[in-house]
Specification:
2 domains; alpha/beta; Rossmann fold; elongated; 5 strands; 15 helices; 349 residues
Length: 349
């Protein structure tokens, strides 16, 4: 396993020290490492090395069990992810690739839910004897993506798993889990790191202007890589307020719609706080003019929240982003005349 980011050391130690039950719920903001922590815990429980070879309770990384975990072939480990996340998180095997190919043939998008079939399979896995004679572990992430039917199926096994079975649920939205699921798990908080610690870690990972990009990701360091993969640089983030005020949406072209809407929500928030004389949270202060119309921007913030709720639905993303950029431009400076070419008033449905 790669080294844990430094802010996960305490939650990891807490989980090892206090986890006397068979189900943990790791909860905290997105992008701080719940999934990585869950895998590190699973590896520690499955490691077969002597304690003297294991630093701080972590897996040794060298024994046969650790090599199997690293190869994603350990017979006593199951990792449940939505289809849409399997490849991006590095857990897309041949079966997953075949499933995605079949989805492409039928026009079906990879599911963003953890479906009944996956839960049924992990229940059957729990009933089996551990192949290597130790623990069996199931990691479920994001746990809030388990649909209600599947969650109800899991309850009995989650409450009384056979043998040495352990579950690790990781979630950025634990309030969306069924209360009956939450009550069967021991909760471990995974807080966002302090900005200096996260910036230092990002800098050591070779990321320049880490402070600007960390703010762009809402203080969630593991989200920075996703934005970098889309071509977002610190300079591009600094330019975005000026470009949106000019009605230009090119900077967000090609972004997944949820991320583009997230960027506009952050810009709308900072335009409001700058207009009332407070320091922006997501953008450098010098990048956000403080002359916005507070009432209009606040009203448009509601439009963005509604758009965010539907961002994963089939939309024409380019038209949706263009529409929202033009609406934010008008909300920011409603006294200005509309730019040539007009604006879209729909979300491209």
């Amino acid at each position: 396993m790669p080294p844990l980011p430094p802010w996960l050391g305490t939650p990891f130690a807490d989980a090892l020290r206090t986890a006397h039950g068979h189900a943990l719920l790791l909860h905290g903001p997105r992008g701080v490492g719940q999934f990585e922590l869950a895998l590190t815990l699973a590896s520690a429980w499955l490691c077969e090395a002597e304690p003297a070879r294991r630093s701080g309770g972590r897996a040794c990384g060298e024994c046969a069990a650790c090599r199997l975990v690293a190869a994603h072939t350990h017979p006593d480990l199951r990792v449940l992810l939505p289809e849409a996340l399997q490849v991006s998180l590095g857990w897309g095997g041949d079966e997953d690739a075949a499933g995605e190919a079949e989805a492409g043939k039928t026009g079906r998008k990879p599911s963003r839910e953890i479906r009944v079939e996956a839960i049924r399979a992990v229940i059957a896995f729990a009933q089996q004897t551990a192949t290597r004679g130790g623990f069996k572990v199931a990691v479920i992430y994001p746990a809030e993506r388990v649909n209600a039917t599947a969650a109800n199926m899991l309850l009995k096994t989650l409450e009384e798993p056979p043998g040495r079975m352990r579950f690790v649920l990781a979630s950025a939205a634990p309030q969306r889990l069924l209360p009956t699921v939450r009550s069967r798990c021991q909760a471990i908080a995974v807080p966002a790191p302090a900005a200096p610690l996260a910036e230092d870690w990002l800098g050591k990972e070779g990321i320049a202007d880490a402070g600007v990009l960390l703010a762009a990701a809402g203080g969630q360091p593991l989200e920075v890589a996703e934005r970098l993969s889309l071509g977002l640089t610190a300079d591009a983030w600094r330019r975005l307020p000026r470009e949106v005020r000019a009605g230009q949406s090119a900077a967000l072209a090609g972004w997944p719609l949820p991320l583009a809407i997230d960027a506009l929500q952050k810009l709308c928030h900072d335009a409001v706080v700058a207009a009332v004389g407070a320091p922006p949270r997501y953008f450098p202060a010098a990048a956000v003019p403080g002359d916005g119309d507070v009432a209009a921007l606040t009203a448009f913030g509601q439009t963005l929240r509604q758009a965010a709720r539907h961002a994963e639905h089939p939309l024409n993303a380019a038209l949706a982003v263009e529409s929202l950029v033009q609406q934010l431009r008008r909300a920011w400076r409603p006294q200005e005349p509309p730019s040539a070419g007009g604006a879209f008033d729909t979300l491209g449905r």
